Amino acid sequence: MLPVVTLVFAAVILTLPPLLLMSMSRSPRLRAHLWLVGAALAVAISWDLPSPWFSEYTATFSQHLVGGGTTSALVAMYFISHASAPTWRHRLLIVVAVTSILGVSNEVLELGLDLLRGTALRRDASFDLLANMIGSFVTWLGIEFIRKR
Question: Can you give 36-90 as a three-state secondary structure string?
C-alpha cells in the first residue's frame, strides 16, 4: 500500500503546482522542477523514518515532519522561484500558506478514511499539523541559510 500512496503523492506533487501556475498564465520554469522532485523524494523517504514516542499521538511525527513539512517547504520553494524578487517575509508567508494548505488537505483526507473505513487517523491531527509546520520552518531556514552563503 505504501508504494502506491507514495506514487500517488509524487504524481500530485509533480503535476498540480505546474498546472496551477499555467492556470495563472505563467510558464513553469524547468529548473524549478527540481524543488518538486525533492518534495516527491521527501515523501518517499518519510515512510521509513522512525518517530519519537512522546505520546500515543506521535507515532507518525517524523513522517509528518519530513513527508509533510519538508515536502511543503520544497513545494513552496517551487512557487517562490516563480515570484519576482520576494523578500524573506514573502517567502516565509508562502511556506506557511503551502504547509497549511497541504497539511489541512491531508487531515481532511484522513477524516474521509476514518469515516469510510473506520480507521483512527484523525486522532493525532494536532501533532501532525505541528510536525508539518516545524518541518517546513526548519527546511525553509536551512534553504535560506544556504542561499545566503
Answer: HHHHHHHHHHHCCCCCCCCCCCCCCHHHHHHHHHHHHHHHHHHHHCCCCCCCHHH
* DSSP 3-state percent helix, strand, coil across the chain (nearest 5): 75, 0, 25
Q: Would you state the cell numbers that stand for residue 37, as one nine-digit string?
A: 522532485
Rounded to whole angstroms, what are the CA distances from 40 to 10, 18, 70, 105? 5, 14, 10, 17
Which pLDDT score, from 0 to 100, does residue 2 have? 60
* In the predicted structure, residue 13 carries a pLDDT above the cut 90: yes
Q: Which three cell numbers stand for residue 129?
A: 499539523
- Please tell me which of 11-15, 92-96, 117-121 the model is most confident about, judged by mean pLDDT: 92-96
Q: How far apart are CA 134 and CA 90, in angstroms?
A: 18
Cα 55 → chain centroid: 23
**Residue tagged 506533487 (cell numbers):** 13
Q: Which amino acid is at 34?
A: L
Q: Where are the domains of the chain?
A: 2-148
